[in-house]
Design brief:
alpha/beta, Rossmann fold, 6-stranded mixed β-sheet, 21 helices, 11 strands, globular, binds 6-O-phosphono-beta-D-fructofuranose
Length: about 500
């Protein structure tokens, strides 16, 4: 396998093979994946495919889609595919009566009523964090065509100033609230939810909803039971976009558009679980991310959107990849000797050219990138879109080819690993397909690395310590620096 120690010069690979671009690119439904600029040869990719076979990917996919326990530490299946299937009962373990049908029809019916203005609401505040925020906000941002009767305001991290400003401009009589929380116990979400409950007052019962896997906790919080939009516990938070957690996005996009998103994701499920998996975008992404992380030992992966509608793709993938693959032990609880998740970062294309691209071009460390773009602009300013596409191509080319110059400070070493993901057009179906493909790529990587992608025990200790520090800070009123240093010291010594 080619790797960090004997990495071929990519410009030479292109010079030697005029057909390289065809052999090292894949068109899977609406997405073109171009990995020709990676230091990979034909047999190198074949070896990656063999690796997947040797890791037992076939059986693992059958277990995933068969509703087997693929999340052993929480003894759960992971059936987020059932949430977007036309027939959930085709997934063993996904009991259609387990609120799936009601969940999808229930929350989409609510979303449609909000989208149409049937409830007289002009604004909807969605409060949630992590998977209860990122996916819905991404699809809402990407697909919004300003036809909804409600404006959606997304609250995630605790930002008192933001909340106060928002509540000052909204009318409680015309504002709905969605509390999105699988556990219905996330501190940041409940803190804001309590403020919203107080702000709505007696309207809370009629204008607040909860998307959660813990209906009883939502009811105890004061959510009317008819306004609880439950989803099954086997839905991972970062895989919950397809559940009632997506209700606010659906209120912005409309039922038909959200159903198209589900169908696009279901199409990716079909590709990944079917006989043509080797030609799927999902498996290509998995094997190439494995090549970058394990063969090139690249510590990071940048997701750069050269279409503003995909600006949040990096944030979404940051959680999906790092919370799924950022593990320290394997499925047998044996400490892992090899690297797992890369540090995923991301943002918008030309903005990042004015901040991090200098280092990405010339600093000694190499940080692989996935540049994502869309051929059709989705707006009327073709010349503006041409700027996006030309910079995408320019950056990918400069990263890979480099540039010689008699002055060393002007040289670009090139051979910086970069992949390009292009859609013909960005619509609900193509976006759903992309996001689900990345979900399956992460699952496939977890099989290659023998880890559980569906739990996230690493975040629990921080939550426990924060509760203790909160109590200690409350006892001190307005802390000064001495208090702060004392708390720091006690935190490390007690
Ligand atoms: O970051 C930990 C985590 O549990 C994520 O997996 C999840 O998406 C997020 O917190 C929010 O959790 P909940 O939806 O239960 O509020």
């Amino acid at each position: 396998m080619l790797g960090k120690n004997h990495t071929p010069d990519v410009a030479t690979l292109f010079a030697e093979d005029a057909q390289r671009i065809r052999q090292f690119s894949l068109l899977d439904q609406a997405w073109l994946l171009d990995y020709s600029r990676l230091p990979l040869t034909g047999d190198g990719y074949g070896q990656l495919q063999q690796l997947a076979r040797d890791a037992g990917l076939e059986a693992a996919v059958a277990n995933l889609f068969g509703g087997e326990i693929v999340n052993p530490s929480e003894r759960r299946p992971a059936l987020h595919m059932a949430l977007r299937a036309d027939d959930p009962s085709s997934f063993p373990g996904a009991d259609p009566d387990q609120c799936l049908a009601r969940d999808r029809d229930g929350f989409l019916a609510l979303a449609e009523s909000l989208f149409n203005g049937d409830r007289g609401l002009t604004d909807l505040i969605h409060v949630g964090i992590g998977g209860s925020d990122l996916g819905p906000r991404l699809v809402s941002d990407a697909l919004d065509v300003d036809q909804s009767a409600v404006r959606v305001h997304w609250l995630s991290t605790v930002d008192a100033r933001r909340l106060d400003r928002l509540l000052a401009e909204l009318d409680p009589a015309r504002t709905g609230v969605v509390i999105a929380s699988k556990s219905f116990s996330t501190e940041e979400t409940l803190l804001q939810a309590r403020a919203l409950r107080e702000w709505l007052g007696e309207r809370f019962a009629s204008q607040a909803w909860a998307a959660t896997a813990m209906p009883e906790r939502a009811a105890d919080f004061g959510i009317d039971r008819a306004h609880v939009l439950p989803f099954p516990e086997w839905t991972g938070g970062r895989f919950s976009l397809w559940s009632s957690v997506g209700v606010s996005a659906a209120a912005r996009l409309g039922r038909a558009c959200f159903r198209e998103l589900l169908r696009g994701a279901a199409a990716a499920d079909l590709c990944f679980s079917g006989p043509d998996r080797n030609q799927s975008l999902a498996l290509h992404l998995a094997l190439l991310m494995h090549f970058l992380r394990r063969d090139l030992s690249a510590p990071s992966l940048g997701i750069v959107a050269y279409d503003p509608r995909l600006a949040l793709l990096g944030d979404f993938l940051q959680q999906l990849v790092m919370e799924s693959l950022g593990k320290g032990v394997d499925l047998e609880d044996v400490p892992l000797r090899q690297s797992t998740s890369p540090l995923v970062f991301g943002g918008r294309g030309t903005d990042l050219q004015h901040s991090i691209f200098q280092a990405l071009h010339q600093a000694p460390d190499s940080h692989p990138l996935i540049l994502a773009g869309v051929l059709e602009p989705g707006h009327g300013r073709d010349d503006w879109h041409r700027v996006q596409l030309s910079h995408l191509l320019a950056q990918a080319t400069a990263m890979a080819r480099g540039r010689d110059d008699e002055r060393p400070c002007r040289r670009l070493p090139g051979n910086r690993p970069v992949m390009v993901l292009m859609a013909r057009r960005l619509d609900a179906r193509s976006l759903g397909f992309l996001l689900a493909s990345f979900e399956h790529a992460v699952f496939a990587l977890s099989v290659l690395w023998s880890i559980n992608p569906f739990d996230q025990w690493g975040v629990e200790e921080g939550k426990r310590l924060a509760a203790r520090f909160n109590t200690a800070l409350a006892e001190r009123g307005e802390p000064d620096f001495d208090d702060w240093l004392d708390l720091t010291n006690r935190g490390m010594r007690d």
